[in-house]
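Per-record layout

source: Craterilacuibacter sinensis
name: Magnesium transporter MgtE
length: 479
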Amino acid sequence: MTVLEKKPTDRLQDSLAQVQRLIERHHLVEELVHRQDMPKHGLVEELVHKQNVNELHHKLDQLHPADIAYILESLPLDDRLLVWDMVKSERDGEILLEVSDAVRETLIESMDAHELVAAAEQLDADELADLAPDLPRQVVYEVMGGLDDEEREQLQSALSFEEGQVGALMDFELVKIRADVSCEVVLRYLRRFDELPDHTDKIFVIDDDDILKGVLSIRKLLVSDPDADVSEVMATDVVTFHPADDAEDAALAFERYDLITAPVVDEKGVLIGRLTVDEMVDVIREESESEVLSLAGLREEEDLFAPVIDSVKNRWAWLAVNLCTAFVASRVIGVFEGAIQHLVALAALMPIVAGIGGNSGNQTITMIVRALAMGQMQPNQAWMLWRKELGVSVINGVVWGGVIGIVAWWLYDSFSLGLVMTAAMTLNLILAATMGVLVPTLMQKMGRDPALGSSVLITAFTDSGGFFIFLGLASVFLM
């Protein structure tokens, strides 16, 4: 299979494997050089060492910045810094934009101030705005001092918006034209560019006051009569965004309308920038990752090779909550200790009730969190969705509770135990559905991330509730 025939993921994995092999060889040769006593042999090892370093340099030079970022994220800290030192300095800025926040922190910590300034100077104003919050303040000031007035104003504008707002993500490189010129004039104007800004699929049409009047797609321009005015062929029904709009809402709009770029206008309709699909893809990916982390109770994205203490800080809070809820569940079991001693089968069966409830609750909570994130559900719709989930839970409880009830009857020769098992599972699934709707809805109403710790909370409710329901029913009907 040739390189071009390989899937992108396979090529990326191959590149990672090659870099890892070169790093291993680098460490081996370095160790031999330090151990070697004979000058002749030492010279040979030194030549091999230089050849290996050159190979590693050459390999990194061939890779896209995003691929290098992936490799850096996949390496332990010492190897990561070794590779980082071998990357050409003019590519540092691009790679820093691609790596995760946690890995970016380790790379920035390893760089001197002048290296950070040199890396930042390679970036456009909108790219620098993405990186600026992670840079030392003095570095940002020094870089801003080297910008021209227009770039400095653009950077300050982007930094004035909060993370997660459209204004912090907008691109200032765009092509603008007036509506009263012909398509032929526009084509001649475009030919004056060495290259168009990335993701240019449309040209923005403005008036003398920079107020957006419409857009002219490149495809429409190419097939239109050269003598036709832009006003005759442009589209006026345009999806626009304001700088204070939520970036997640903008990303959903890009997905819904299949946008590549979209204009950003101020409250007067003045064109001030544009959004591009690559930024929106990043927003969607980051939101997806954040949602997964929040469900598990992780506060932030974690460097896979982070120091132990950093990982502990990231994970301890919800583990503490989990410990408290587990203690509550154990006390529920303790209350029914006599019933368990009287009928040992209860100890074998109660984890089934709790486990099925937890799984069902996680299914419900995942659906609700997704609906809230996509804007498909409003908090006032919780009652309607709860009734729907209640119906699902009752049917699943009767069906699968009946199955496990028959199994319990067969195993322990007790029809009553089978009925208790069926009833307990049905009631715990109802509890799981209720909490699966209630927990994220309440979190949303309190202004918190509805996914935050939801998986931990739903497990706590279904464990404690499942034990209480099952052992309570057993105490009433089987003792």
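summary: The CA atoms of residues 22 and 55 lie 8 Å apart. The radius of gyration is 30 Å.
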